[in-house]
Write a structure and sequence with these properties.
- This protein is α/β, with parallel strands linked by helices.
- The protein is about 50% helix and about 20% strand.
- Helix 3 (about 60-65) links the parallel strand 3 (about 50) and strand 4 (about 75-80).
- Helix 5 (about 110-160) packs antiparallel against helix 7 (about 170-200) and helix 9 packs antiparallel against helix 11 (about 325-335).
- The two termini are about 40 Å apart.
Length: about 350
């Protein structure tokens, strides 16, 4: 993390630079307030600053005051260093925007601790900002994804109220199917949002029990076969017998369902999806291979993040929340397992996850 040291006394500045470099910080120096202000308002500013109060304009307190009104999302922790010891001066410095205050001569270990506190504060602020950005993204995408199916349902309701079905009753089944599809998509999105909320808050609880992964995988494949049949996709299996071991069957069902449904979504009609279960190195490995368009290396880097959608759309216009793989990753990692993907453009993809056999 970058640390700004701003002091017009070259001896103090050199000493601060020497000790702070030992603490592992990247040091930026400023000999006056102008240089300090320029560094703090640059495109890539330091996130920590030790500012001398008394130095050529603007002084340390004035810089703290200005920073309160500087329009930058990045939080910078400001420590004032001065020989002033009066309580009134300390209050004035803190009221002006300083986050901490240390008097000269200072105790080195005290300064190190105060800088370390500042570093932790900056990291906490960054996490808070990231969480806020995720929350805002949640709201934007949820609003967008809920709007379309709601619009379908509203439009169908208007058709029903218009009396059209009395004239053409055969259209009723199609309208009911569209209502069902829209409602299911909204339910899927809401369930995914709730899962992400639980996981991100650290409240994901696993209900583990000795369970047969062979039986569970077979059941989930049977469930997926009716979706695959709509696209004339065959699901081929190769399942090695593994004795029951401890995991959460409901949560692992979510992972399996997501990987198989994705394989079906992104595979062309009449193609093949393969599902394997193997035991290796004390782990149960599940592999799902598809014959889809493949995934670029850039897409693979962000594949398991929230609200990430692939560059290639589903082959039959299927809906996707962009949350499934992020949820799957968290569930697998909560079991001390691992999940990943191997793919090249034009060669399909192989998703896999491994659970320790306990």
């Amino acid at each position: 993390m970058k640390l700004l040291i701003a002091d017009d006394d070259p001896t103090i500045r050199a000493y601060l630079k020497h000790i702070a470099a030992k603490w592992g910080y990247d040091i930026i120096e400023a000999v006056n307030g102008v240089q300090a202000w320029s560094a703090l308002t640059s495109e890539d500013p330091p996130r920590l600053a030790i500012l001398d109060w008394v130095m050529p304009e603007p002084d340390g307190v004035e810089i703290c005051r200005r920073m309160q009104y500087h329009a930058d999302e990045r939080f910078i922790y400001l420590i004032l260093l001065t020989s002033k010891t009066e309580k009134q001066s300390i209050v004035h410095a803190l009221d002006s925007g300083a986050h901490d205050y240390l008097t000269k001569p200072f105790y080195v270990n005290e300064l190190r601790s105060r800088v370390a506190v500042g570093k932790r504060f900056v990291e906490a602020q960054d996490k808070l900002r990231e969480s806020n950005e995720i929350k805002n993204k949640f709201l934007r995408i949820a609003a967008h994804d809920l709007r379309n199916p709601l619009a379908v349902i509203i439009n169908i309701a208007q058709v029903l109220r218009s009396g059209l079905l009395r004239e053409s009753p055969e259209k009723g089944d199609d309208l009911l199917m569209r209502i069902d599809q829209s409602a299911r998509h909204m339910l899927s999105l809401v369930n995914d949002l709730l899962d992400v909320s639980i996981i991100e808050s650290g409240h994901l609880k696993l209900s583990t029990a000795a369970t047969s992964l062979n039986t569970l995988l077979t059941q989930r494949i049977q469930f997926a076969e009716h979706l695959a049949a709509k696209k004339q996709i065959t699901i081929q299996t190769e399942i090695e017998e593994i004795p029951p071991f401890s995991f959460d069957p409901n949560r692992i069902s979510q992972v399996i369902d997501n990987l198989i449904s994705n394989a079906v979504k992104y595979s062309p009609k009449g193609s093949l999806v393969q599902v394997f279960l193997k035991r290796k190195d004390g782990k149960a490995w599940v592999f799902v291979r598809d014959q889809g368009p493949g995934i670029s290396s850039e897409d693979q880097k962000r594949l398991f993040g929230e609200f990430q959608r692939l560059g290639s759309p589903p082959t039959d216009g299927e809906a996707s929340t962009g949350l499934g793989l992020a949820i799957a990753k968290k569930i697998v990692e909560a079991h001390n397992g691992r999940i990943g993907v191997q793919s090249r453009i034009g060669s399909g993809a192989i998703f896999s996850f491994a659970l320790p056999i306990l």
